[in-house]
Amino acid sequence: MSGGALHVHQATVGELQRAASTVLAPLAVTAPRAAAGAGVGPEGGPGVEANAFRADIDAAAVGRAAVARIRGSGHLVERSARAISSTDPELLKITLHRSPEPAAADQGGTQSRAHSGDFVVFDMTRPYRLAVADDCDVMAVGISRTELGRHADTVAGRAARRLPADSGAQAVLATFLQGLGSHLDELAGPAQAHAGDALVSLLLAAFTETEPGRMDTATELVDRIRVYVLANLSDPSLCVDSVAAAHGISARQLHRLFRHTGIPFAAWLRGERLARIRRDLLDPAQDGRTTAAVAARWGLHDPRHLARALKSQYGTTARDLRRER
């Protein structure tokens, strides 16, 4: 999802389908109860249920994720095989249910009933169904698999299985999402970027917990490397060789580890630096710093390289970013 926030109150089924498809990917939304009652009323007009469906939709981009809150009448959301295209983004959808009646989830033969306070994950690259009852209150997060890196498969492996949010990282994530749902209008610029970073971190904490001794060694090493790099982004000498040496491995091993994440190390490092530079350029509190100073803070000291990198990554220049505010 790109652009500003989306708000549709008292939405019809069709409006809900259009909003959901815009925020995430093509989806079919139906309201079986409303359709069943849409016959002829006592005065020859439509039946009383024909116009009974209503939903309030609030959605916005939060960092590089899309977050939406849907409240209202019961409905069925389906992602059919026919609707899936190779051009669709590879998204994972995480839902948090705060509805009085359980929701029914189904994907790939796995079925579950999500009660109030439960999370459910859906892999948007495969067909699924989600049926929610009346008075639903659902938070939905759409996030690219690349944002979760190697952990994407772990999260996707929980598809259609309920995950209670009653303790630990799950409870923290649930509280965070509820706060987001109430303040989507108030997030912009740096605040939105920071909230997006926090959201990704909490998703990983909530959905990738493993028993002691069960962590894959390669995954653990990649995580340690990422933590080390993010703590040292301001160091201009940070590179494949220096990071590999700091972890007692060869540059070739480092390249191999990151190849399995789907993003080469150099590309990941560049993207993390550019994301923080962009965030600072959008922050009015950084107006006293030159663009060169902002870039140097995150380890980039070549203005020409920065200009090309920003243009390639975001399609804009540093000057234009500061004008966007």
Number of helices: 13
Low-confidence runs = 35-50, 210-216
Please tally the β strands and state the result: 12
Largest sheet: 7 strands, antiparallel
- State the end-to-end distance: 19 Å
**Helical residue percent?**
40-55%
- Beta-strand content: 15-25%
Radius of gyration: 22 Å
Mean pLDDT: 85
| Shape annotation | globular
Order of helices and strands: EHEHEEEEEEEEEHHEHHHHHHHHH
Topology:
Layout: E1 6-11, H1 13-23, E2 28-30, H2 32-36, E3 55-62, E4 65-72, E5 75-79, E6 91-97, E7 103-107, E8 110-114, E9 118-123, E10 128-132, E11 136-144, H3 145-148, H4 152-156, E12 163-164, H5 168-182, H6 189-207, H7 217-231, H8 240-246, H9 251-259, H10 265-281, H11 291-297, H12 303-314, H13 318-324
Antiparallel strand pairs: 1-3, 2-5, 3-4, 4-11, 5-10, 6-9, 6-11, 7-8, 7-10, 9-12
Helix pairs in contact: 5-6, 8-9, 10-11, 10-12
Task: Explain this structure.
There is one protein chain. This protein is of the alpha+beta class and 325 residues long. 41% of the residues lie in helices and 21% in strands. The protein has 13 helices and twelve strands. The chain has a seven-stranded antiparallel β-sheet with strand order 1-3-4-11-6-9-12, sandwiched between helices. Strand 7 (103-107) and strand 8 (110-114) form a beta hairpin. Helix 8 (240-246) packs across helix 9 (251-259). The longest helix is centred in the middle third of the chain and has 19 residues, at 189-207.
